[in-house]
Amino acid sequence: MGKLFLECLDRKVKVKKITKAVMTVLGQVSKFKAELIFYNSEEMHNLNRNTRGVDSVTDVLSYPSLDGIRGKILYPEDCLVGLEGKYIFLGSIVLCEEKIIQQAEEYGHTPAREREYLIIHGLLHLFGYDHMTEQDKKQMRALEKKAIAILHPEEAEEEK
To answer: What contacts 74, CB < 8 A, 6 or more positions away?
Structure first.
């Protein structure tokens, strides 16, 4: 199994289990890097408006460095543009902590659990998955559920 190093310079965030779950679900075998950034509501609003033309605060934004990789097993020799040393650089994920706290309350779980889900969601975007069509959304949600089931088998049992 491959490895994914998710670098966060803003704060200490435990991501090792999350990245391992995503790598397992996707069956990736190479070494990857991505960056995780935290913004406040105002910064996230500006970023969303400036990069996507959406004039609102959002919970997560992903900026992939590679195109056309969805569903593919990646190797360094196939990704010459996105290489950073021996790692394939996937891109950046930006999270809004204020939205995480608000949504955690809304959904009835902890901010840590919401953050975990949004990191999974962001990583899947970096690997080329999206939710623009109903079929794409189903595929992405299924992968998210598989990753969550690895991290929280008790939740998967509750759904049965």
So the answer is: 28, 30, 32, 66, 88
Burial class (CB in 10 A: 0-12, 13-18, 19+), 138: exposed
d(CA 52, CA 46): 10
Task: Give the start-to-end residue ranges of the domains of the chain.
Answer: 3-151
Predicted structure pTM score: 0.93
* Amino acid sitting at position 100: I
Tens-place pLDDT, residues 44-73 = 999 999 999 999 999 999 999 999 999 999
Give me the helices (H) in 12-133, please.
16-26, 41-52, 97-107, 111-126
Give the domain 3-151 fold. Answer: Collagenase (Catalytic Domain) (3.40.390)
Q: What is the CA radius of gyration of the chain?
A: 15
